[in-house]
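If it is no trouble, might I ask you for a protein's amino acid sequence along with its backbone structure tokens?
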Amino acid sequence: MDLLLWRHAEAADGAPDGARELTARGRKQARAVARWLAKRLPGDCRVLVSPAARAQQTAAALDLPVTTDPRIDVGASAHDVLAAAGWPDGGGTVLVVGHQPTLGQAAALALTGTASAWSVKKGALWWLRRRERGGERECVLRAVIGPDLV
């Protein structure tokens, strides 16, 4: 199974939190990462998105069908995010577009078994893979890419 964790791009400050929208810079960040992903995502990739406006706008840059999932909204837990994605046994490829600190905690939990406070930069993407090698299950970090590097 492949799991991609994509933090929403830069958003404007404001309230209510769920209504915050991307800035011009954030829209540019989302488009850049979406172009990078478009060359690499399999056609059957499932895209799960937080209901927050900034996450929805980030995912929209992909121009793919998405599923809005409240289990990955602002304030969700790392366990909620991994469960929503079906990690580690769900199979296929799942892209989650969500928020910090949850995505950093989910990456740490998937890679180490502990939901530590890892930072995911705005607009950045972490690509994890669960595989078997020599009869052992392992998690591999395939890529970490920020919008400034694509």
In short: The chain is about 30% helix and 25% strand. Residues 24-38 form the longest helix (15 residues).
